[in-house]
């Protein structure tokens, strides 16, 4: 079966089409038949947090997501609460311990709020796991069926960097709200008048931070285990300020729905943002999630209206004649971008607009990017220096620089 010209169920439900997805996340055609580990796309980003009840409220009120399903003590799950939220094709699952002896308590004590499972939708769980095992991947949960009155899901889990895992989910025989054991549930939260229908439509990429010297090991893991290919490469001086540096490589699945930039710290005069992350997350983990929007101005205004804080971009960024010349024409006046601190980058394929939030939890770890692509399949390489200088200013304020 080839999957190059099909939409995922989530994309169909979100009324997205292939042309929109090409624009939003750089979807490409490919032949899944020759892929040893065919990934259809993202299934869910599963979070472990200290207070799922309030975090679920935050993602509804501030990020405009909709509650669609729930599992907890009232549904027979005495271990934890889990809230399933959607925005466009994106699914977040927010989990927090109820039972004081839940494994989630230890996970949260160690890592703080963060992403514990980047679940992927696949068409053949057994084939993927068989391949992963044959090249030495750690299988955490063997392929098995989970069934309820809505159908059957085939699922397995493999280990990735740190305590991060990838569940592999085949939900094509399932009609329920999320997984067996979850009940449909809508939120009591009402969107404010004039709020956009959704703040973001799709997930573009999830960045992993790994330890010094481990980036290539994890690139090889995704190459070998998942058949991902290398998209772009940024090394050394590409991502260095006067004080700190990092190295980054990007791997992607065949259709480019799933893109994993992998960062490692590089030796420099001061502590890099990657070192800060590794220290406070207590190991490797997911650093940022890039949310694709087709109107970043509206998205940023909606998020700011709800109090979401972004990294500051200095006015000098927009006034630099060299940068202005390189940016050329974009769909909105530079002044509108400057007002909001939105960054622009351009390459041979087109341009992109992007902006980064402050960390959304207590620890200086996971944060979000909003991205609006116009042809460019890059990750904002031209902005890295300005961005990292902005992060350094925040690290300085936290006493971690
Ligand atoms: Fe990014």
UniProtKB/TrEMBL annotation:
Does Iron appear among the keywords? yes
Keywords from the UniProt entry: Dioxygenase, Iron, Metal-binding, Oxidoreductase, Repeat
Q: Which InterPro entries match?
A: 4OHPhenylPyrv_dOase (IPR005956), 4OHPhenylPyrv_dOase_C (IPR041735), 4OHPhenylPyrv_dOase_N (IPR041736), Glyas_Bleomycin-R_OHBP_Dase (IPR029068), Glyas_Fos-R_dOase_dom (IPR004360), VOC_core (IPR037523)
Question: Per the entry, which co-factors are needed?
Answer: Fe cation
- Annotated VOC domain ranges read 41-171, 202-358
Per the record, the domain of life is Bacteria
Enzyme Commission no = 1.13.11.27
Q: Name one GO molecular function term.
A: 4-hydroxyphenylpyruvate dioxygenase activity
What's the top EC group for this one? oxidoreductase
* A Pfam family: Glyoxalase
- Family according to the record: Belongs to the 4HPPD family.
* Database matches in PANTHER family: 4-HYDROXYPHENYLPYRUVATE DIOXYGENASE
For this entry, the protein name equals 4-hydroxyphenylpyruvate dioxygenase
Organism per entry: Angustibacter luteus
Q: Which gene encodes it?
A: hppD
């Amino acid at each position: 079966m080839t999957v190059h010209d099909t939409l995922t169920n989530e994309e169909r439900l979100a009324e997205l089409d292939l042309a929109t997805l090409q624009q939003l996340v750089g979807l490409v055609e490919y032949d899944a038949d020759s892929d040893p580990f065919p990934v259809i796309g993202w299934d869910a980003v599963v979070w472990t947090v200290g207070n799922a009840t309030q975090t679920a409220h935050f993602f509804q009120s501030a990020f405009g997501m909709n509650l669609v399903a729930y599992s907890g003590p009232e549904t027979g799950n005495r271990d934890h609460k889990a809230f399933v939220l959607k925005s466009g094709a994106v699914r977040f699952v927010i989990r927090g311990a109820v039972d004081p002896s839940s494994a989630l308590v230890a996970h949260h004590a160690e890592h703080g709020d963060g992403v514990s499972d980047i679940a992927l939708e696949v068409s053949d769980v057994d084939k993927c796991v068989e391949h992963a095992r044959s090249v030495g991947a750690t299988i955490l949960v063997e392929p098995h069926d989970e069934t309820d009155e809505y159908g059957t899901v085939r699922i397995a889990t493999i280990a990735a960097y740190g305590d991060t895992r990838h569940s592999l989910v085949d939900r094509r025989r399932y009609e329920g709200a999320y997984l067996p054991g979850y009940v449909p549930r809508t939120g009591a939260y009402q969107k404010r008048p004039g709020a956009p229908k959704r703040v973001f439509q799709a997930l573009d990429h999830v960045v992993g931070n790994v330890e010094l010297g481990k980036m290539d090991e994890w690139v090889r893991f995704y190459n070998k285990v998942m058949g991902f290919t290398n998209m772009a490469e940024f090394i050394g001086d590409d991502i260095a300020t006067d004080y700190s540096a990092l190295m980054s490589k990007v791997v992607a699945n065949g259709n480019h729905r799933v893109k994993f930039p992998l960062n490692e710290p590089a030796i420099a005069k001061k502590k890099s943002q990657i070192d800060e992350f590794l220290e406070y997350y207590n190991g490797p983990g997911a650093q940022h999630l890039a949310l694709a929007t087709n109107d970043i101005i509206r998205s940023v205004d909606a998020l700011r209206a709800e109090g979401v804080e972004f990294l500051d971009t200095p006015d000098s960024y927009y006034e630099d004649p060299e940068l202005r010349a390189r940016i050329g024409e974009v769909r909105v006046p530079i002044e509108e971008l400057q007002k909001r601190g939105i960054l622009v980058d351009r390459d041979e394929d087109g341009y992109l607009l992007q902006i980064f939030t402050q960390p959304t939890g207590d620890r200086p770890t996971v944060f979000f990017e909003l991205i609006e692509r116009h042809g460019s399949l890059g990750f904002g390489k031209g902005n890295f220096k300005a961005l990292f200088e902005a992060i350094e200013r925040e690290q300085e304020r936290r006493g971690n620089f």
